[in-house]
Write a structure and sequence with these properties.
The chain contains four helices and six strands. By secondary structure, the protein is of the alpha+beta class. It folds into two domains: 100 residues, Topoisomerase I, Chain A, domain 4, CATH 1.10.132.20; 68 residues, Gyrase A, domain 2 (2-Layer Sandwich).
């Protein structure tokens, strides 16, 4: 039972880091990244579909994304969906592809994004601490569990959370460097 608790804790901790990295990938840093289009939903014959299910998103160069729809008549709806997604991007419909230039960011916008990254990192750390609390509660609820083993278990849980916090902080620093890079 004890090992199951540790395995569940590790899964929760890994999920918090993965979620943080995924959310960081969605931030526009002045560099083209196909993940920027993850939240865009296109009206595909009356139903809202994710952009990646109706087109291929690729990076042309550092400042340009190309969206190539699988059906040529979808360029208009894709262009409208990108505008409606409120990403601060202005797509250009070329008939068979939609080009999305990524404008350079201002210094103030970079500072705002660093604050957003710090907030997202703190949310990931809170998630880790919640997982720690849940794991400790489960350890304490075990019947016939020796006090020494409980103490060792709590220490192991804390060590796992500390290692996860370092992973989050490292990912945070990497993203801050990327955001501040001109």
């Amino acid at each position: 039972m004890e090992e199951e608790i540790f395995a569940d804790l590790q899964h929760s901790l890994d999920a918090s880091v993965d979620h943080f990295r995924h959310e960081c990938g969605k931030l526009r840093t002045g560099r083209a990244n196909a993940a920027l289009m993850d939240g865009v939903r296109v009206d595909y014959y009356g139903s809202e579909s994710p952009l990646n299910q109706v087109a291929t998103v690729s990076v042309v160069d550092a400042r340009m994304l190309q969206v190539k729809p699988w059906e040529r008549n979808m360029c208009g709806p894709i262009e409208k969906a990108i505008l409606a997604a409120n990403l601060g991007l202005t797509p250009s419909n070329r008939g068979d592809v939609v080009l999305v230039p990524i404008p350079p960011m201002t210094g103030d916008r970079r500072k705002e994004l660093v604050k957003v990254v710090k907030h997202m990192a703190e949310d990931a750390k809170v998630s880790s601490r919640n997982a720690r609390r849940d794991a400790i509660d489960l350890l304490e609820s075990l019947e016939d569990f020796p006090e020494d083993d409980l103490t060792r278990g709590k220490k192991k849980v804390q060590d796992m959370v500390d290692a996860n916090t370092k992973r989050i902080e490292l990912a945070e620093k990497e993203k801050e460097v990327e955001v501040l890079e001109v």
